[in-house]
Amino acid sequence: MTPPDLPNPSRPSPPESTAESAAEPADFLPDESIAMARSFKLNLSWQAIFSIVMFAFMYLPILVLTVYSLNESPYSANWEGFTLEWYERLLQDRRVFFALRNSLTVASCAVLISAVLGTLMAVGLARYRFPGKKLFLGISYLPLIVPDIAMAVATLVFLAAVGFPLSLGTIIAAHVVFCLAYIAIVVSTRLADLDQNLEEAALDLGATPVQAFLQVLLPQLTPGIISGCLLAFVLSMDDFLIASFTAGAGATTLPMEIFSRIRTGVRPDINALSVILISASALLASVAEYLRYKNEAKPQ
Amino acid sequence: MAVSSPPPKSDLQSSEPRPLSRWVGPLVLLGPSGLWLLFLLVLPVLVIFELSLVPNIRPGDVVNPSSLANYWLTFNPINLNVIVRSVGLAVSTTLLCLALGFPVAYWIAILAPARHRNLLLLGFILPLWTSSLLRTYAWITILRPTGVLNSVLGSIGIPPLEILNTTTAVTIGMSYSFLPYMVLILYSSLEKLDTSLLEASADLGAAPLQTFWKITVPQSLPGIAAGSLLVFISSLGDFIDPELLGGASSMTAARLIYNQFLGQTQNWGFGSALSMILILAVSIAIALLLKYGDRDAHR
User: pTM of the prediction?
Assistant: First the structure.
């Protein structure tokens, strides 16, 4: 992305990336103010205001759900008084807990399997060259781009064609396909930043390949694996389409339960459920982002 | 994309002597995931391709691939209408996300204080971590006839709007769902933009709008292309937003596919054909982007 032969009068040195200039605020600030003063003074105001409006747009639905979950009359848009009734009702709702347990089972199993398979795959793809490697790569990342509905249809038709009975297990098997892709991509990114000499040194010093993998490579990959797992966990908990196509009788997951309820209109207990789930995922997101931040900060 | 860059070649493979052990490593590392992908991704896609060639299949029928009837069914006026509507919705969502996302990404990447950039970006994409179903459900609460929007409009004397169960509601819902992806991709492109180019342009007397069209847009074109494609693909395959916000009037391709399997009008062959079309369309789009992006990088 280096610009072609254009004069660069304001800086003696070649252009720095923003990450570097972030580390040197003294160097950065005058630059920024010059740029602003020269051409962005007017733009700054409207872009900042517009961005604030868009931030509000992103959080508006979450705010609305939170307010409604505490509103005495959920069917009117007006505030009728504070209540915790919907939360109490939700806590007594057995079907929601049953669905939540199914979702947690599916997500944990799918993530555990994918963590192992995805890590091995990422290491394998980084280490070996073999015929058909590009095809393997393309197929393994296909779930990232193919719409869920097509993945769901394909899995259902295949399971029906081979006569495999649908159950909670088939949801797990289907979820592993996309969890694998997300974990592998996060681990690959981490792998690319690693110092390979460490593992080679271990091998030179007499470690077996398995020892070198478990004791040298794996500890370095752990932050990447964990943040990949968190991402995959959230996606698995969120999936409605693939689960509803591959679920057997009684294997209702939480998104399936929520879908069947909100289809019929606004439900006060779902407001309360939303707030609880959104808080939980915000917590998970913070952990994941913290890990990612540490992950990116470390290798340098 | 990270996928296209070849990983660094390790010296480890050359230090492994025996021909048999050369295959142990790859098999252990890639075998399990390869088998999983074979059985739950490759074979399923092949099976729906086979099924898409079988017209009017019913459970228990002998599968006898023979015709393209299911594909021709796509061109029946009703179904064609659905596909045109899906593409139209995806295009309008993409344009809306681009229009809304570009100023935000530009502000975070270039104008906002550098030390707050990561936090601002994180704050913008944080809602992605919450359930997409529940975020769409929140839009029902906002847009329904007696919802938040109309109660706010009513309080300032504007007559209520009928937005829920229209394609407008679907466009709003999908734009909301996919805007964070657009901002994320545009940000990573704009972040690399050399701001001294902008200064040079301003120094040489270009108006801000000229600088924008002649420098900012061309420099961030790969990001614009990748972000637009991602939003387009996601909108095209989206089921939840059209289903919950669109009502009966906005049948889309994804809903049509759903109905062929879990709805009243079951036709697995036609559903498979539609899925194949969707998979092919998406794969071609991605292949074009990768090719275009690669050429761009080597120039």
Answer: 0.81
